[in-house]
Amino acid sequence: MFDQATGLRQRVNGVRKSRLIAVASGKGGVGKTNLAVNLGLALQKKMQKVLLIDADLGTANIDVLLGLTPRYHLGHLFNGEKDFEDILVEGPGDLKILPGTSGLEEYLNISRKQVERLSLLSSHLELNYDIILVDIGAGVHNNIINFISICDEVIVVLVPEPTAIMDAYSLVKILHNHQYSGKINLLINQVNSLQEGKGILERMSKVIKDYLGIEADIVGYIPFDNHLRQAVKKQKALLDLYPGSKAGQAFLEIADKLLAAGEINMMERKSGKEGFIGRLLNLLK
Ligand SMILES: Nc1ncnc2c1ncn2[C@@H]1O[C@H](COP(=O)(O)OP(=O)(O)OP(=O)(O)O)[C@@H](O)[C@H]1O
Ligand SMILES: [Mg+2]
Which residue, 5, 8, 247, 279, shows the most beta carbons closer than 10 Å to its own? Predict the structure, then answer.
């Protein structure tokens, strides 16, 4: 695989194909992991090759959400115990997943040899996936800000509660203070009506523009939907079980919106830096 990756990398001369999107939030429990999984599935239905990385340093649990029991996780990849193919698991709808672990930071102390190995893997991933969605933990801890910074863009998830709204704003502000240069997308989950969601996100993007001087894109609204809770209990993806549900439809619309926006940003991204794992490794140097 690595030889192949090297060859491919030489052929495309550093041009990167995939779009790296972090899913993050200020406050925990707002629906990031469910978004990452269902958005991944929605994008896959729209003919995108999607890789989902569980990089939540605190509560990595994409596997639990989907009833999967992976034998290995990202940590085994970082410390060289396992190869990419060993840890990759297949989720619903052919979605490829790199499972995470709650103690991931411990595995990030790796040797020079591992760094080289992972750099090659990084090129392989960048060339083989259209979209890489990274489920990042909640909060504004340095590690989280660093993880977000190495992605092309971030989806900041919030819910219609004052604490979640304030924490989402704090996250954007801290990213801005850290000279974050990627695109910021805002998404509100668990809304009671479209008007409620629209009102909050429009106000939020105005505050971000007025106080921080940056543009944040509104990517969508997901209604509160009991189908999602049922899907969680059954350890299945909502879009797999209830594709026609209101939340299911919202995920598909958000996928359309992201893809439309991606067309516009394509040139910028291609001229950009190396991939996720490569950038993660640069952080460690
Ligand atoms: N649209 C929705 N409608 C109804 N319930 C929802 C919705 N979105 C999320 N939930 C509920 O919120 C719970 C938490 O969701 P999820 O695990 O995706 O959040 P998270 O942001 O990843 O949490 P953490 O910060 O702990 O990683 C779900 O198990 C579900 O019960
Ligand atoms: Mg989560």
Answer: 247
Residue numbers in the chain where pLDDT is lower than 70: 1-16, 264-275, 283-285
Question: What are the distances in angstroms from CA 3 to CA 34, 45, 96, 113, 120?
Answer: 35, 31, 22, 16, 9
CA–CA distances in Å: residue 95 to residues 11, 41, 262, 267, 268: 27, 7, 20, 26, 27
Query: What is the pTM (predicted TM-score) of this model?
Result: 0.90
pLDDT of residue 211: 96
Question: Is the shortest distance between the CB of 234 and ligand 1 below 6 Å?
Answer: no
Assess whether the C-beta atom of 245 lies below 6 angstroms from ligand 1: no
* Ligand 1 binding pocket includes 225 (Cβ within 6 Å): yes
Q: Cα dist. 96→91, 158, 282 in Å?
A: 6, 26, 25
For residue 157, give the ligand 1 atom closest to its CA. 21
Q: How far, in Å, CA of 67 to CA of 264, rounded?
A: 36
CA distance 110 to 112: 7
Any idea which residue has 């140097």 for tokens?
285
Kindly identify the ligand whose nearest atom is closest to the C-alpha of 231. 1
Ligand 1 pocket: which of 23, 25, 27, 33 to mutate (most atoms within 8 A of CB):
33
Instruction: Look up residue 148 and give its two tokens.
Output: 């977000």
Question: Which of ligand 1's atoms lies nearest the C-alpha of 223?
Answer: 1
Predicted local distance difference test score (pLDDT) of residue 144: 87
Torsion 269-270-271-277 (CA) sign: positive
CATH number corresponding to 20-264: 3.40.50.300
**Residue 253 CB neighbour total at 10 angstroms:** 15
Q: Which pLDDT value is given to residue 116? A: 76
Question: What's the pLDDT score for residue 38?
Answer: 98
Domains of the chain by residue range: 20-264
* Nearest protein CA to atom 19 of ligand 1, as residue: 31
